[in-house]
Design goal:
single chain; 69% helix; globular
Length: 267
């Protein structure tokens, strides 16, 4: 049974609240000066660790849903393969954010990445391929097209053509509630308009990670605008929703602890 609540759902509210908090501290840091915002968005800072934790948690959620679907169907259907692919993609995003634990493990950057990575880190998204900046010229454009399509075009289309939502769900995907999607896009736009800093894009990445963490849980686990949730009893949906909302808030606290633990010398 589809749950109709959208913005008023505790998990969706938690996601919007966390993203609003991130934007607020970003604006406060920018007001304090460019160095303060650089410190906030630095590698192994609060924003980077929050991205990693959100993507890692999302990968675990998707892996659970993938295994559940496989157990039900007993075959590698298109739905299962799509969910497995999404799980791998999100897990890749998580480890890419912290350069595959390079700084955590104190591993020296290999020669190839020293030569071709714009930040001299062991990750793929900051590579230069010839004269092409993979992140700015390819990945950002793909993310923009996919984000607008998934968060605006398809949810609006589904209002007039409900079969669109059913078709997307049959492929193992979901559509975020339009209200939640608009909240995400508005915060993203505000971060671009109100901030003038070369690392302001880090806020947008965090918004996306938190937005998809909250809406994926809301859809797959408790059925917000989704037909086949893992939890079907209303009492169970309510309990697990509030638990997950508090868990998301806890991720912010853990990110702060990790950022403090990896503070550069003299900072």
């Amino acid at each position: 049974m589809t749950v109709r609540e959208t913005v008023l759902h505790p998990v969706i509210l938690a996601g919007i609240a966390i993203n609003t908090f991130v934007l607020a501290i970003g604006l406060l840091a920018a007001h304090a000066g460019p160095d303060a915002f650089t410190a906030l968005s630095r590698e192994d800072g609060l924003i980077e660790w929050l991205q990693f934790l959100a993507f890692a948690a999302l990968a675990l959620l998707l892996a659970f849903v993938t295994l559940d679907r496989f157990a039900q169907q007993r075959r590698a259907s298109l739905e299962v393969l799509a969910l497995a692919g999404l799980t791998g993609l999100v897990a890749l995003a998580a480890v890419e954010e912290i350069s595959w634990f390079q700084r955590v493990l104190n591993v020296e950057t290999p020669a190839f990445f020293q030569q071709h990575n714009r930040q001299l880190e062991t990750n793929l998204h900051n590579l230069f391929i010839g004269e092409v900046n993979l992140h700015k010229q390819v990945i950002v454009r793909i993310i923009f097209i996919v984000g607008i399509t998934h968060n605006l075009i398809l949810p609006v289309l589904a209002i007039f053509r409900p079969a669109v939502r059913g078709r997307i769900e049959s492929l193992g995907l979901y559509l975020p509630p339009l209200a939640a999607a608009i909240s995400y896009l508005v915060l993203l736009a505000l971060s671009q308009v109100l901030l003038d800093h070369p690392r302001r894009g880090e806020l947008g990445e965090t918004f996306g990670a938190i937005h998809y963490l909250s809406t994926s849980f809301a859809a797959y686990f408790v059925g917000v605008r989704y037909q086949r949730p893992l939890f079907t009893l209303r009492e169970d949906r309510t309990r697990v929703s509030w638990m997950f909302a508090w868990f998301m808030a806890f991720l912010v606290f853990v990110a702060w602890l990790l950022a403090a633990g990896y503070r550069p010398a003299g900072a």
